[in-house]
Protein backbone atom coordinates (compact mmCIF):
# COMPACT_ATOMS: atom_id res chain seq x y z
CA UNK A 1 0.00 0.00 0.00
CA UNK A 2 2.60 2.56 1.10
CA UNK A 3 4.27 4.27 -1.84
CA UNK A 4 6.92 6.96 -2.18
CA UNK A 5 7.70 9.56 0.43
CA UNK A 6 6.09 12.57 -1.25
CA UNK A 7 7.46 15.15 1.19
CA UNK A 8 8.55 16.02 4.70
CA UNK A 9 6.89 19.14 6.08
CA UNK A 10 8.74 21.45 8.46
CA UNK A 11 6.72 24.16 10.22
CA UNK A 12 8.58 27.43 10.63
CA UNK A 13 7.80 30.77 12.27
CA UNK A 14 9.36 32.91 9.50
CA UNK A 15 9.23 31.50 6.00
CA UNK A 16 11.64 33.96 4.36
CA UNK A 17 14.27 33.33 7.04
CA UNK A 18 13.73 29.57 6.77
CA UNK A 19 13.98 29.63 2.97
CA UNK A 20 17.26 31.53 3.32
CA UNK A 21 18.66 28.82 5.64
CA UNK A 22 17.99 26.15 3.01
CA UNK A 23 19.00 28.28 0.02
CA UNK A 24 22.02 30.15 1.36
CA UNK A 25 23.36 28.00 4.19
CA UNK A 26 22.54 24.53 2.83
CA UNK A 27 22.76 25.41 -0.87
CA UNK A 28 19.39 23.87 -1.78
CA UNK A 29 16.98 24.64 -4.61
CA UNK A 30 14.12 26.57 -3.01
CA UNK A 31 10.93 27.60 -4.83
CA UNK A 32 9.17 30.93 -4.57
CA UNK A 33 6.66 31.19 -1.71
CA UNK A 34 3.06 30.19 -2.45
CA UNK A 35 0.14 31.28 -0.27
CA UNK A 36 -2.42 28.51 0.17
CA UNK A 37 -5.19 30.28 2.11
CA UNK A 38 -7.52 27.26 1.89
CA UNK A 39 -4.89 25.28 3.83
CA UNK A 40 -3.92 28.07 6.22
CA UNK A 41 -0.25 28.05 5.22
CA UNK A 42 2.28 29.73 2.99
CA UNK A 43 4.75 27.20 1.61
CA UNK A 44 8.07 26.91 -0.17
CA UNK A 45 9.23 23.67 -1.76
CA UNK A 46 12.78 22.36 -1.62
CA UNK A 47 13.62 19.89 -4.37
CA UNK A 48 16.08 17.26 -3.11
CA UNK A 49 15.98 15.32 -6.39
CA UNK A 50 14.24 12.27 -4.97
CA UNK A 51 11.58 13.98 -2.83
CA UNK A 52 10.63 17.37 -1.42
CA UNK A 53 10.90 19.29 1.81
CA UNK A 54 8.05 21.70 2.38
CA UNK A 55 8.54 24.66 4.70
CA UNK A 56 5.21 25.83 6.12
CA UNK A 57 4.43 29.19 7.72
CA UNK A 58 1.01 29.91 9.27
CA UNK A 59 -1.41 31.95 7.13
CA UNK A 60 -4.56 33.42 8.61
CA UNK A 61 -6.30 33.14 11.96
CA UNK A 62 -7.05 29.40 11.99
CA UNK A 63 -3.86 27.94 10.60
CA UNK A 64 -3.51 24.21 11.35
CA UNK A 65 0.14 24.73 12.35
CA UNK A 66 -0.31 27.54 14.89
CA UNK A 67 -0.55 25.23 17.92
CA UNK A 68 2.50 23.26 16.75
CA UNK A 69 4.57 26.45 16.54
CA UNK A 70 3.42 27.55 19.99
CA UNK A 71 4.94 24.30 21.30
CA UNK A 72 7.96 24.49 18.97
CA UNK A 73 8.71 28.20 18.52
CA UNK A 74 11.90 27.60 16.50
CA UNK A 75 10.00 25.31 14.13
CA UNK A 76 10.22 21.56 13.71
CA UNK A 77 9.28 18.54 11.64
CA UNK A 78 5.49 18.61 11.35
CA UNK A 79 4.46 15.64 9.19
CA UNK A 80 5.51 13.12 6.55
CA UNK A 81 3.45 12.47 3.42
CA UNK A 82 3.34 9.09 1.72
CA UNK A 83 1.81 8.37 -1.67
CA UNK A 84 -0.87 5.72 -2.14
CA UNK A 85 -2.50 4.55 -5.36
CA UNK A 86 -6.07 4.54 -4.06
CA UNK A 87 -6.80 6.76 -1.08
CA UNK A 88 -10.26 5.36 -0.37
CA UNK A 89 -8.97 1.79 -0.35
CA UNK A 90 -6.11 2.91 1.93
CA UNK A 91 -8.55 4.65 4.28
CA UNK A 92 -10.82 1.61 4.46
CA UNK A 93 -7.89 -0.69 5.19
CA UNK A 94 -6.53 1.64 7.87
CA UNK A 95 -9.89 2.11 9.57
CA UNK A 96 -10.49 -1.66 9.52
CA UNK A 97 -7.18 -2.07 11.38
CA UNK A 98 -8.32 0.42 14.03
CA UNK A 99 -6.22 3.38 12.91
CA UNK A 100 -7.80 6.81 13.24
CA UNK A 101 -8.24 9.08 10.24
CA UNK A 102 -8.46 12.77 11.20
CA UNK A 103 -11.46 14.95 10.39
CA UNK A 104 -14.60 13.36 8.96
CA UNK A 105 -12.64 10.56 7.29
CA UNK A 106 -13.21 11.86 3.78
CA UNK A 107 -10.26 12.94 1.63
CA UNK A 108 -9.95 16.60 0.81
CA UNK A 109 -7.90 18.25 -1.90
CA UNK A 110 -4.39 18.90 -0.62
CA UNK A 111 -1.73 21.46 -1.43
CA UNK A 112 -0.80 19.62 -4.66
CA UNK A 113 -4.37 19.42 -5.99
CA UNK A 114 -4.71 15.73 -5.11
CA UNK A 115 -6.86 13.93 -2.51
CA UNK A 116 -5.25 13.69 0.92
CA UNK A 117 -6.00 12.34 4.39
CA UNK A 118 -4.20 12.78 7.71
CA UNK A 119 -3.74 9.93 10.20
CA UNK A 120 -3.68 10.28 13.98
CA UNK A 121 -0.10 10.64 15.31
CA UNK A 122 -0.86 8.43 18.30
CA UNK A 123 -1.48 5.50 15.95
CA UNK A 124 1.73 6.12 13.95
CA UNK A 125 4.66 6.40 16.36
CA UNK A 126 4.03 9.99 17.38
CA UNK A 127 4.26 11.11 13.77
CA UNK A 128 1.53 12.96 11.89
CA UNK A 129 1.16 11.05 8.60
CA UNK A 130 -0.45 12.47 5.46
CA UNK A 131 -1.51 10.14 2.66
CA UNK A 132 -1.77 11.57 -0.86
CA UNK A 133 -3.27 9.78 -3.83
CA UNK A 134 -0.43 9.75 -6.36
CA UNK B 1 25.52 21.50 -1.89
CA UNK B 2 22.41 19.77 -0.56
CA UNK B 3 21.73 16.46 -2.30
CA UNK B 4 19.08 13.77 -1.93
CA UNK B 5 17.08 13.13 1.20
CA UNK B 6 18.80 9.94 2.35
CA UNK B 7 16.33 9.13 5.13
CA UNK B 8 13.93 10.37 7.76
CA UNK B 9 14.57 8.87 11.20
CA UNK B 10 11.71 8.20 13.60
CA UNK B 11 12.61 7.32 17.21
CA UNK B 12 10.31 4.71 18.74
CA UNK B 13 10.03 3.10 22.18
CA UNK B 14 9.31 -0.43 20.86
CA UNK B 15 10.90 -1.35 17.54
CA UNK B 16 8.96 -4.55 16.92
CA UNK B 17 5.64 -2.82 17.53
CA UNK B 18 6.72 0.10 15.33
CA UNK B 19 7.85 -2.21 12.52
CA UNK B 20 4.46 -3.92 12.70
CA UNK B 21 2.67 -0.57 12.26
CA UNK B 22 4.59 0.10 9.05
CA UNK B 23 4.48 -3.49 7.78
CA UNK B 24 0.97 -4.57 8.72
CA UNK B 25 -1.03 -1.35 9.02
CA UNK B 26 0.65 0.72 6.30
CA UNK B 27 1.68 -2.16 4.06
CA UNK B 28 5.31 -1.05 3.74
CA UNK B 29 8.48 -3.05 3.02
CA UNK B 30 10.29 -3.29 6.36
CA UNK B 31 13.78 -4.79 6.82
CA UNK B 32 14.88 -7.08 9.61
CA UNK B 33 16.12 -5.30 12.73
CA UNK B 34 19.83 -4.50 12.93
CA UNK B 35 21.59 -3.73 16.20
CA UNK B 36 24.15 -0.92 15.84
CA UNK B 37 25.78 -0.87 19.29
CA UNK B 38 28.39 1.69 18.20
CA UNK B 39 25.50 4.11 17.49
CA UNK B 40 23.38 3.16 20.49
CA UNK B 41 20.37 2.14 18.42
CA UNK B 42 18.62 -0.82 16.88
CA UNK B 43 17.17 0.08 13.49
CA UNK B 44 14.79 -1.16 10.82
CA UNK B 45 14.71 0.37 7.35
CA UNK B 46 11.55 1.06 5.37
CA UNK B 47 12.09 1.32 1.63
CA UNK B 48 9.69 3.86 0.10
CA UNK B 49 11.20 3.48 -3.37
CA UNK B 50 12.67 6.98 -3.50
CA UNK B 51 14.13 7.20 0.01
CA UNK B 52 14.08 5.44 3.40
CA UNK B 53 12.40 5.76 6.74
CA UNK B 54 14.53 4.52 9.62
CA UNK B 55 12.87 3.45 12.85
CA UNK B 56 15.29 3.76 15.78
CA UNK B 57 15.00 2.12 19.19
CA UNK B 58 17.50 2.86 21.98
CA UNK B 59 20.25 0.28 22.50
CA UNK B 60 22.44 0.35 25.60
CA UNK B 61 22.84 2.76 28.47
CA UNK B 62 24.00 5.85 26.59
CA UNK B 63 21.75 5.83 23.55
CA UNK B 64 21.61 9.22 21.78
CA UNK B 65 17.80 8.93 21.47
CA UNK B 66 16.95 8.22 25.13
CA UNK B 67 16.36 11.87 26.04
CA UNK B 68 14.22 12.39 22.94
CA UNK B 69 12.00 9.46 23.89
CA UNK B 70 11.66 10.74 27.44
CA UNK B 71 10.19 13.93 25.95
CA UNK B 72 8.23 12.03 23.27
CA UNK B 73 7.22 8.71 24.83
CA UNK B 74 5.08 7.60 21.87
CA UNK B 75 7.99 8.30 19.51
CA UNK B 76 8.41 11.02 16.91
CA UNK B 77 10.42 12.34 13.99
CA UNK B 78 14.00 12.57 15.21
CA UNK B 79 16.10 13.81 12.28
CA UNK B 80 16.42 14.15 8.52
CA UNK B 81 19.54 13.08 6.63
CA UNK B 82 20.69 14.81 3.45
CA UNK B 83 23.42 13.58 1.14
CA UNK B 84 26.40 15.76 0.22
CA UNK B 85 29.22 15.01 -2.20
CA UNK B 86 32.03 16.22 0.04
CA UNK B 87 31.35 16.29 3.76
CA UNK B 88 34.48 18.24 4.70
CA UNK B 89 33.70 20.96 2.14
CA UNK B 90 30.11 21.03 3.43
CA UNK B 91 31.28 21.33 7.02
CA UNK B 92 33.66 24.15 6.20
CA UNK B 93 30.98 26.06 4.30
CA UNK B 94 28.48 25.59 7.12
CA UNK B 95 30.88 26.64 9.85
CA UNK B 96 31.94 29.70 7.82
CA UNK B 97 28.26 30.71 7.71
CA UNK B 98 28.04 30.43 11.50
CA UNK B 99 26.12 27.13 11.67
CA UNK B 100 27.05 24.78 14.51
CA UNK B 101 28.27 21.25 13.84
CA UNK B 102 27.66 18.90 16.77
CA UNK B 103 30.45 17.06 18.56
CA UNK B 104 34.05 17.88 17.73
CA UNK B 105 33.21 18.89 14.16
CA UNK B 106 34.86 15.86 12.62
CA UNK B 107 32.81 13.35 10.61
CA UNK B 108 32.36 9.91 12.06
CA UNK B 109 31.24 6.75 10.31
CA UNK B 110 27.45 6.55 10.34
CA UNK B 111 24.96 3.70 10.29
CA UNK B 112 25.52 3.15 6.53
CA UNK B 113 29.31 2.98 6.77
CA UNK B 114 29.79 6.49 5.36
CA UNK B 115 31.05 9.72 6.95
CA UNK B 116 28.33 11.72 8.70
CA UNK B 117 27.92 14.93 10.69
CA UNK B 118 25.02 16.31 12.70
CA UNK B 119 24.01 19.99 12.66
CA UNK B 120 22.53 21.94 15.57
CA UNK B 121 18.71 21.97 15.44
CA UNK B 122 18.57 25.60 16.57
CA UNK B 123 20.38 26.62 13.40
CA UNK B 124 18.08 24.56 11.13
CA UNK B 125 14.46 25.40 11.97
CA UNK B 126 14.23 23.21 15.05
CA UNK B 127 15.20 20.16 13.01
CA UNK B 128 18.16 17.90 13.73
CA UNK B 129 19.96 17.55 10.38
CA UNK B 130 22.41 14.76 9.52
CA UNK B 131 24.70 15.11 6.51
CA UNK B 132 26.04 11.94 4.91
CA UNK B 133 28.72 11.81 2.25
CA UNK B 134 27.01 10.02 -0.64
Please describe what this structure looks like:
2 copies of one chain form a homodimer. Chain A has one domain: 2,3-Dihydroxybiphenyl 1,2-Dioxygenase, domain 1 (Roll). Chain A is built from 3 helices and 9 strands; from the N terminus they run E-H-E-E-E-E-H-E-H-E-E-E. The first copy, chain A, has helices at about 15-25, 65-70, 85-95; strands at about 5-10, 30, 35, 40-45, 50-60, 75-85, 110, 115-120, 130-134. In chain A, strands 1, 2, 3, 4, 5, 6, 7, 8 and 9 form a 9-stranded mixed beta sheet that branches. The model of chain A has no long low-confidence stretch (mean pLDDT about 95). The interface of A and B includes residues 8, 51, 74, 97 and 123 of A.
Task: Summarize the helices and strands and which ones pair or pack.
The structure is a homodimer of 134-residue chains.
Chain A: E1 5-11, H1 15-25, E2 29-30, E3 34-36, E4 41-47, E5 52-58, H2 66-71, E6 76-84, H3 87-96, E7 108-109, E8 115-119, E9 129-133
Parallel strand pairs in A: 1-5, 6-9
Antiparallel strand pairs in A: 1-6, 2-4, 3-4, 4-5, 7-8, 8-9
Protein name (chains A, B): methylmalonyl-CoA epimerase
Family (chains A, B): Belongs to the methylmalonyl-CoA epimerase family.
GO biological process, one term (chains A, B): L-methylmalonyl-CoA metabolic process
Radius of gyration over C-alpha positions of chain A, nearest whole angstrom? 15 Å
Q: How is the CATH topology of chain A named?
A: 2,3-Dihydroxybiphenyl 1,2-Dioxygenase, domain 1
Low-confidence segments of chain A, given as residue ranges, are: none
| SS elements, strand count of chain A | 9
Taken from the alpha-carbon principal axes, the silhouette of chain A is globular
Task: Please identify, by name, the CATH architecture of chain A.
Answer: Roll
Helix content of chain A: 10-25%
- Cα distance, first to last residue of chain A? 12 Å
The helix count of chain A comes to 3
User: How many separate structural domains of chain A?
Assistant: 1
Strand content of chain A: 35-45%
> Quick one: biggest sheet of chain A?
9 strands, mixed
Provide the structure class of chain A.
alpha+beta
Mean pLDDT of chain A: 96
List the quaternary state of the chains.
homodimer
CATH superfamily of chain A: 2,3-Dihydroxybiphenyl 1,2-Dioxygenase, domain 1
State the name of the first-level CATH class of chain A. Alpha Beta
Largest interface: A-B, 41 and 41 residues
Element-level helix/strand string of chain A: EHEEEEHEHEEE
Amino acid sequence: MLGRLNHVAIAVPDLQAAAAVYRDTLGARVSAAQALPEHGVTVVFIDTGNTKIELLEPLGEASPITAFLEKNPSGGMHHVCYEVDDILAARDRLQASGARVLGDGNPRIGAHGKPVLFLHPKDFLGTLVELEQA
